Amino acid sequence: MKAHVRGVGAFSLVEISLALGVVSFALLALVGLLSQVLDRSRDSTETFLFSNMAVGHQVDLEARDWMDLPTNVEMRSIDGQGKPVGPSEAVFEVVLTPLPVAPPGVATSVGGAGVDSLRFFRIEMRRPGSASPMHVSTLSIAHRQ
Questions:
Q1: Nearest Cα to Cα of residue 70 among 145, 144, 127, 139
Q2: Nearest 10 degrees: CA dihedral of 21, 27, 31, 36?
Q3: How much is the average pLDDT of 95-102?
């Protein structure tokens, strides 16, 4: 006859099942948060890229002669790092639209520092084939005497 030994430390099947359930629940919650983190990261990258593109366009427009500023819509295709590419390789499209008047809420006063007039441009970034922009901003270019 075998003797039963008491006092051996071991977990029961119920305890192991409960522990696995708690761990599974925690892992599932982390996986659920991962998609939100990735979305936020992508949005942040796109916002950073747009702000860099807007600054680059501002510098480009300010470097041009006043009479050479665009009067028609200009569109550029860029990749995910903001480098110009062909339309078939584009990740984003950047559209620069001259505005005939200042948009509402934009200061239009000129004078001081040799400024005698302003021109305004709308810049937007969107995905190729999309009609709605992801990011939009207004650029103002000052004509200095």
A1: 139
A2: 110
A3: 86
